[in-house]
Amino acid sequence: MTIAPPRNTGTDQQPAPSTGNAAERTRVGPYPWAMAGSIAVGVAGAALSLNGVLRGWGWYWPVFTTVLVVCFTLAALRAVRAKPLLVTAGGFLALAAALTLTFFRGSSIAGVIPTGASLAELDRLIRRASETVLSETAPVAPNVGIVMVICAVLGLAVILVDALAVPLGMPAATGAGLLAILVVPAMIKPQSVGFWGFTAAVAGYLMILACSQWFVPDARTSADSARSPGQVRRAALTGSVALIATLLVPLAVPGFDQGTFPQGSRLNPWGTSTGLNPMITLGNSLRTPAGTGRITYATNSTAPLYLRSVTVDHFDGDSWGPDDRNASRRSLGSQIDPGYTVLVDEQQPVVTAIDAGSFTSPYLPAPYPPESVRGLDGRWTWDPATLSIKGTDTTSRRQEYLVRSSVPRLTAGQLARSSAGVQGIPEDFTRIPGNVPEIVRTTASAVAGSGGTPYEKAMAIQKYLRSAEFTYSLQSPVQGGYDGNGLSVLADFLDQKSGYCIHYASAMAVMARLEGIPSRIAVGYAPGRLTGATVSVAGEGALPEYEVDARDAHAWPELYFQGLGWVPFEPTPSRGVVPDYASEALAPSAPGALENNDDLAPDATPAPAPAPSAAPLTAPGGGEGTDAGVQLLPLLLGLGGVLGVALLAAAPRLARTGIKARRLRSADAGTAAVLAWSEMVDLGTDYGLPPKPSETPRAYSSRLRESSLLGEPGGMDDAAHGAVAALTSDFERREYGPPPERAGALKEGTGRTGAAGAHQEVTGARIAALETALRAHAPALRRLRAWWVPPSVIGRLGRLLAAPFRVAGAAVVQAAKAAARFWSARWSARS
Questions:
Q1: Average pLDDT in the chain
Q2: 330 within 8 A of 387, measured Cβ to Cβ
Q3: Whole-angstrom Cα distance, residue 280 to residue 523?
Q4: Whole-number Cα distances in Å, 588 to 182, 419, 443
Q5: Which DSSP category does 386 fall into?
Q6: Do domains 283-582 and 658-743+751-789 have the same CATH topology?
Q7: Considering all CA atoms of the chain, what is the largest pairwise distance in Å, rounded to the nearest integer?
Q8: Sheet holding 565-568, edge to edge
């Protein structure tokens, strides 16, 4: 009589241990809680490194609570023996509830169930976070949008680390999740991750490894059973190799600055390109002591020449940002038209030949307003609203081009006669946010409120900002805790009266809008220094050459005057050049203010200022300069995307590894026999030898050992042959032998702890011998498939996905049968 084997359903059926009472069989012990605490320490500790990416510590409490809620929800579900998929799903639900309670309580049901209004609020917060990060340099303002994004990302990191540590049984791989958090500050902060963040992340990682080693979930009741000989030695060797790699790799990999992780080795994936980021991240550029990103230009202009990179016009109160208006951009092949008529008697035609050198940006530096650009490589477009020139799949790096522009000769009288009523200006240039701090409103009213014309108001604001009350400083804003351009930063700036160009430009632009004058901010380079060389330009002869670099990165406000167009002003003391139409007897700036641009173009008339100093300001802390323009939100999303794609590609392999590890960890001999048989069947399936539906265990074992797929003759070597025979014998004894109670009674009191450990080691050796034989004789393509996309996992996934359809189909069939019986009965009754 043939005895049919147990059906392989694709899941690991683990019979309950045969001894012990019900409480012992269901007890899980401290393992879930200890692992949750370890993960919380690792993720929340790694989050400490984000201080300096985000300003202050106000953001950390919601981050910390979100991490705790997700961690201990996972632990609670695991403590009640929920299925792994339910545990992970519960983690996602806990994260959603925590975010809803923290950020969307007013638009939710009972504070934790999001509604349609919550989703609309979510979209608004994401846009707010994006605008803040794109337009501010680190440390960015920790507004509610960016804090929400950080909480969500770290909550997802908790779920990832937990999945790697527990259901997949790969605790060592959890370091990838913690490293993904540390990469952000390592790439953004000049001081890199920092001591405490790195130390806390390492402590959490070691705790995760310790929990995986010493705590034993489910039926494993002894820490000794989880240990194997030589593990301490292997751990010490792995740690030593990792430490040596940590010290040496940054020195060998291009893109790392000098230093030892975690201090001083800030990752720079953009190589040596040091182009000015158009999103107002000027602080790092200005603090670069080496003056990188050199641009040279030759011009026939008789006035100091500003090179504009991009115009920033959108302001929502949290940050200034550019509006690229991609839908309305035009090809650069056409004539550039400003879209308005300048009613002045004289305009100076200017020719400028520019070599962008190593400056790398999608935006092209050019004098304003450009009329035509010649000599560029690649595709370029221009914005009719701002005349900014942007590349399509190309950058400014190594571009050499000729710009023709026309500069109107404006006078104070013309500006004073300009009417106050402005027509035809988009709302983007006049919008005033509703959250303007009181200090900004009162300052604007006090400084410019008495002015009778827009020009008088503009001059009053410029005079106030250039007065002795304010000092130019690259260090004070950072040391004082602000280094951006939002309203909160602007309030700090007006209170401290110390900052650099972005603060002055932002202050004048906002106060001008409060006084009814359209405004925007131009970002680019202040007038540069003579190099002593000349450049021959066709039709113009030899023109003097100038240079600018990162130390000349600058921002200045532009105000709109009816009939005259956009007019630049210079409110930053000791920077740039005040135009003739905006010059007056200004009070000198405070002693010690930084000067630059001391070798300006001939005929320039700089505003009165202290004696110039050509020495660049040393970056805080010294050392090598770092690139500006790292964007936090795209970086987080990019890291998340790369990590997600990598995990998706590796998911079958990870799942297969986790299943195998879980099977080989069982301490109960009977259960271990069934799981080892399941592992043997899956190995055969992965290498092209799946069991047949009607095949007995012994028949399948024989076919596996004798298969021609494993070489000639006889199939397997002696070790693998013996392993398969032993695994089959154990399985048959467990399934078809005496009941577990009788077999266990014979061995009562024989020291199960040591026996369990020895059994695990023997079973692992048998499985390893079988896998080695299968892999050695399989073709290369089959080995690759078995490694990356194991058929046993794919089949299990297919059955899981098909299960709802099978259930639905069965329900439909049952319903149809019931309906048929019902109508048949009614028909019979009528008959």
A1: 73
A2: no
A3: 7
A4: 46, 31, 20
A5: T
A6: no
A7: 116
A8: 307-312, 519-525, 553-561, 565-568
Give dist(CA 88, CA 90) in Å, integer: 5
Token output for 479: 């040391």
Measure the CA–CA gap between 365 and 295, rounded to whole angstroms.
9
Q: At which residue do the structure tokens 């109508």 appear?
A: 823
Structure tokens at 358: 């190593």
pLDDT of residue 511: 92
In the chain, the amino acid numbered 613 is S
What are the backbone dihedrals phi and psi of residue 108, each rounded to the nearest 5 degrees, phi first?
Answer: -110, 170
Among positive and negative, which fits the CA dihedral 682, 688, 694, 695? Answer: negative
Confidence class for position 553, pLDDT limits 50, 70, 90: confident
Distance of CA 386 to the CA centre of its chain: 30
Burial (0-12, 13-18, 19+ Cβ within 10 Å), 91:
buried
- 283-582 fold: C8orf32 fold (3.10.620)
The structure tokens 């500790």 sit at 45
Spatial distance between the Cα atoms of 709 and 700, rounded to a whole number of angstroms: 14
| Each residue's pLDDT tens digit, 249-262 | 555 544 444 333 33
Domain boundaries, the chain: 22-229, 283-582, 658-743+751-789, 791-826
Q: Centre a 10 Å sphere on the Cβ of residue 229 and count the other Cβ atoms it contains.
A: 9
Q: Give one word for 736, left, alpha or beta, with left for phi > 0 and alpha for psi -120 to 50.
A: alpha
Give the phi and the psi of residue 669 in degrees, each rounded to 5.
-60, -45
Is residue 811 over pLDDT 50?
yes
Q: Which amino acid is at 567?
A: V
Tell me the pTM: 0.48
Question: Measured at the alpha carbon of residue 717, what is the angle toward residues 716 and 722, in degrees to the nearest 5?
Answer: 85
Q: How far is CA 384 from the centre of its chain?
A: 33
Q: Do residues 321 and 289 lie in contact, with contact meaning Cβ atoms separated by under 8 Å?
A: no
Torsion of CA 138, 142, 144, 150, to 10 degrees: 70
- Per DSSP, the three-state class of 308 is strand
Structure tokens at 145: 């949008």
pLDDT tens digits for range 572-593: 987 788 888 888 644 343 333 3
DSSP classification of residue 336: P
State how far the Cα of 519 lies from the Cα of 699, in Å rounded to an integer.
84
Could you tell me which of 606, 598, 612, 608 has the C-alpha nearest to residue 578?
606
Which residues are 404's β-sheet partners? 351, 372
- The angle subtended at Cα 518 by Cα 517 and Cα 523, nearest 5°, is 125
Out of 156-160, 340-344, 720-724, give the one with best mean pLDDT: 156-160
The partner residues of 331 in beta bridges, in order of sequence, read: 381
DSSP assignments along 405-463, one per residue: EEEE---HHHHHHS-S---S--GGGT---TT--HHHHHHHHHHHTT-SSHHHHHHHHHH
Report the Cα 112 to chain-centroid distance in Å: 26
Please identify which residue in the block is written with the tokens 């893109």. Answer: 255
Question: Residue 615's pLDDT band (boundaries 50, 70, 90)?
Answer: very low
Q: Is the dihedral of CA 618, 623, 628, 632 positive or negative?
A: negative
Q: Encoding tokens for residue 667?
A: 């301490």
Q: How far apart are CA 157 and CA 752, in angstroms?
A: 39
How wide is the angle at C-alpha 65 spanned by C-alphas 63 and 68, nearest 5°? 110
Helix 174-188 / helix 144-165 crossing angle, nearest 10 deg: 150
- Amino acid residing at 175: G
Please enumerate in sequence order all residues whose Cβ is within 8 A of that of 333, keeping only pairs 6 or more positions apart, or say none: none
How far apart, in whole angstroms, are the C-alpha atoms of residue 431 and residue 428? 6
Q: Please tell me the CATH code under which domain 658-743+751-789 is placed.
A: 1.20.120
Contact (Cβ atoms closer than 8 angstroms) between residue 601 and residue 304? yes
CB 271 within 8 A of CB 357: no
Question: How many residues are present in the chain?
Answer: 831
Q: Which two tokens stand for residue 360?
A: 């790398």
User: Which residues on adjacent β-strands are paired with residue 351?
Assistant: 404
